[in-house]
Q: What sequence folds into this?
């Protein structure tokens, strides 16, 4: 008499479950190693953060190269961590040790002072938080608004007061500037401006104004493209903006933990004037020179007085950017972010789906909750995790990616179990199997192709979403995308997007091979 159970069940009924468990244990060990490394890093490595704009990238490299000869291990640079709120949270929680900041931002945005503060007052306010301000670097990089020169001449606009009279003009302002205490809201109140600005990434703003998509943008006064595009910087005739002198915002234990490096960093005080900073920004934005090369040349005295050294040939071509020396590191990071998060999601999601499957109401609630997670924007989820956990980097990125991977895995597990015919379940009962045995020996093996399809979908989602992790210092191909946005460098953006696309295609081919093998085995 022919068995009612399919050949897959007769052959090796629980082998895939054992493999899944073994994989889950391996992923858990990798997570534990990641968390351990993150916890141990502060004791030996000076970690330097930066915001997500050209000047901050360059200054972080200047700080790292200055300190490198005086630290037991090379400093770690966490580039492009996002806006002030994220970088400051990383500093406050101990995820980084210092980063370049500006006195106007510290007093008005971080300390919420109604007026600019002296260095002494800022240090007094920051000391209870374990933070301090030191080493004025020598230049002021203020906020300002700018518009095309021809447009400004035609409308007779020279100042912010003039701008406020032209409600028809389209403003494209960065998200941070729109939301800052010292940004658009206060400026509009001071000048009586009624325009409603459009949010626009700072790295894209110069292209937008050059192509006449917007009329006015916010700028940093040391941006290289102001002169390059011939923009008119509007006079702050009511003195709304404070000074934004560049300084170091640091944890108070840094001088004790790294005394020699701190002494070297203090020598940077007053070493960068505005012309030198504009020249360094120009090399990055107009010539495509790498940030570390610009920092090295500045420290060697090659860029003094605004004289830029020759462009770095290794950074000019697309193929050099695509196959740059960081490719192997970014690939390892992206693979780890993707497959660890998906593995953990499978380890959690499959048993949870099996548990709720027999209970329709509970199943609807759990699937609804995982579906709700998909509606939370990735950057918002990362920000919430950073706030809850007090850390940036790999750990919150992995948790976010795992949460996004749960829905396709759980939904497909439930769908696969629902496709098992009642006849096979009755056959299992007739053979004297318990409910657990039927699930393990009949239902799960039959649902396996649908479950693997869910893991396949989750993997594709994770590969794409993992690029966002670079905004919080978790690395991966998104690091190139974030830097490309900051520099408005389309080639660098493509050099980050193409490897991610290729990785997604390779994962699809891998899953297709697995599913083909399963079909052959069951035939």
A:
């Amino acid at each position: 008499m022919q068995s009612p159970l399919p050949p897959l069940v007769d052959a090796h009924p629980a082998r895939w479950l054992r493999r899944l468990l073994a994989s889950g244990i391996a992923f858990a060990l990798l997570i534990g190693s990641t968390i351990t490394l993150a916890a141990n890093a502060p004791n030996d490595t000076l970690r330097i953060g930066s915001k997500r704009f050209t000047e901050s990238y360059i200054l972080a490299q200047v700080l790292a190269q200055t300190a490198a000869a005086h630290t037991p291990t090379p400093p770690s640079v966490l580039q492009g961590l996002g806006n002030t709120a994220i970088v400051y949270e990383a500093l406050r929680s101990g995820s980084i040790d210092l980063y370049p900041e500006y006195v106007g931002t510290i007093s008005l945005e971080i300390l919420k002072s109604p007026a600019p503060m002296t260095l002494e007052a800022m240090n007094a306010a920051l000391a209870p938080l374990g933070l301090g301000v030191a080493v004025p670097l020598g230049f002021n990089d203020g906020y300002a608004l700018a518009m095309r020169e021809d447009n400004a001449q035609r409308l007779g606009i020279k100042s912010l007061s003039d701008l406020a009279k032209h409600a028809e003009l389209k403003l494209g302002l960065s998200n941070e500037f729109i939301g800052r205490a010292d940004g658009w809201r206060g400026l509009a109140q001071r000048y009586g401006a009624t325009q409603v600005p459009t949010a626009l990434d700072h790295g894209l703003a110069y292209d937008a104004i050059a192509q006449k998509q917007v009329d006015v943008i916010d700028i940093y006064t040391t941006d290289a493209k102001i002169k390059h595009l011939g923009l008119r910087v509007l006079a702050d005739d009511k003195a709304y903006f404070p000074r934004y002198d560049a300084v170091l915002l640091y944890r108070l234990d840094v001088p004790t933990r790294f005394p020699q490096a701190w002494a070297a960093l203090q020598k940077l005080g007053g070493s960068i004037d505005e012309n030198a900073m504009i020249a360094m920004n120009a090399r990055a934005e107009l010539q495509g020179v790498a940030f570390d090369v610009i920092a090295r040349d500045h420290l060697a005295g090659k860029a003094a007085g605004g004289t830029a050294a020759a462009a770095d040939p290794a950074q000019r071509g697309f193929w050099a950017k695509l196959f740059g020396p960081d490719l192997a590191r970014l690939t390892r990071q992206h693979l780890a972010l993707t497959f660890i998060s998906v593995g953990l999601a499978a380890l959690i999601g499959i048993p949870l789906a099996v548990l709720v499957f027999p209970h329709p109401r509970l199943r609807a609630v759990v699937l609804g909750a995982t579906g709700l997670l998909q509606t939370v924007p990735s950057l918002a989820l990362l920000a919430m995790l950073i706030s809850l956990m007090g850390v940036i980097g790999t750990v919150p990125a992995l948790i976010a990616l795992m949460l996004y991977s749960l829905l396709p895995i759980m939904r497909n597990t439930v769908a696969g179990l629902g496709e098992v015919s009642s006849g096979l379940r009755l056959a299992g009962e007739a053979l004297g199997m318990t409910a657990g045995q039927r699930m393990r020996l009949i239902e799960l093996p039959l649902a396996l192709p649908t479950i693997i399809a869910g893991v396949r979908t989750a993997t594709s989602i994770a590969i794409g979403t993992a690029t966002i992790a670079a905004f919080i210092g978790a690395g991966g191909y998104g690091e190139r995308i974030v830097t490309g946005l900051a520099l408005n460098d389309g080639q660098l953006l493509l050099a980050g997007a193409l490897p991610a696309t290729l990785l997604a295609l390779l994962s699809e081919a891998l899953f297709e091979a697995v599913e083909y093998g399963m079909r052959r085995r069951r035939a």
Q: What stands out?
A: Residues 1-14, 27-42, 303-315 have pLDDT under 50 and may be disordered. The CA atoms of residues 46 and 75 lie 5 Å apart.
